[in-house]
Amino acid sequence: MSSSPITACTTHAEAAAASPALLAIDTSTERLAVAVQAAGREAGVSEPGGALASARLLPVVQMLLAKLGTRLSALDAIAFGQGPGAFTGLRTACAVVQGLALGAGKPVLPVDSLALVAEDARAQLGDAAGTVSVAMDARMDEIYAATYRWTGSRWQVLAAPALWAADALAARWQAEPPACVAGSALAAFGERLPTGAARRVMHEHDRAAALRRLAEQAWHAGLAIDPALALPLYVRDKVALTTAERAAKVLP
């Protein structure tokens, strides 16, 4: 397998003193995102995930720790994409992070996986992104959606992550047009999801970097928890339709 793209920065003494040492993992989408920061340096990998995530996750973690010359025992906390997102992916990230954190005696930082998309949009548009509505394809003609406002240091949740039928979200946005929209649902639903004059961020630029920044924001906000308390965020109770429901095209 070809090597994954790695991003890194040079060491800065002031950054090292102010920044926590963190490992962050997200497998809530079809992308595997892993990021590490320590001693003022950072590195990250974003690559195809899905069915490959469970096999690739630990090797990528080990590679990034070695890249920065650090170990799990030297970290301050371990973060994971809590969800919402793919059922198996959420369980994978949570279980792996719990195991690593318990073994190393470190706290865990749950990170909102939809906020990752907003943070990546901010990186592309600058702080002028302001309020960002995130819409991620949830399959089964549904969308994971949430709205966030950038306060200058962290994201404020205006509308918590929820599962929407595509037509219902479209009606909501027609009544209350969003200012900026980001996420995979833009491409997946096309004209069925009208966004009016909103700025549109169709594709993520660097999910691992966004994950790392959100993990650090969570650390500074004091959101670290005991690993035993870490849980995925599910907003869908059903992950598949019955044969009868598929035939009748009934949404869960």
Automatic annotation (TrEMBL):
Please name the top-level EC class of this enzyme: transferase
Question: Could you tell me which InterPro entries the record lists for this protein?
Answer: ATPase_NBD, Gcp-like_dom, T6A_TsaB
Q: Which UniProt keywords apply?
A: Acyltransferase, Transferase
In the UniProt record, which is one GO cellular component term? Answer: cytosol
Question: Which EC numbers characterise this protein's activity in its record?
Answer: 2.3.1.234
Q: Name one GO molecular function term.
A: tRNA N(6)-L-threonylcarbamoyladenine synthase activity
Every Gcp-like domain range: 54-170
Database matches in Pfam families: TsaD
Q: Does the keyword Iron apply?
A: no
Q: Name one GO biological process term.
A: tRNA threonylcarbamoyladenosine modification
Answer yes or no on keyword Transferase. Answer: yes
Domain of life of the native organism: Bacteria
Q: What is this protein called?
A: tRNA (Adenosine(37)-N6)-threonylcarbamoyltransferase complex dimerization subunit type 1 TsaB
Organism encoding this protein: Aquincola agrisoli
Please spell out the taxonomic lineage of the organism that makes this protein. Bacteria, Pseudomonadati, Pseudomonadota, Betaproteobacteria, Burkholderiales
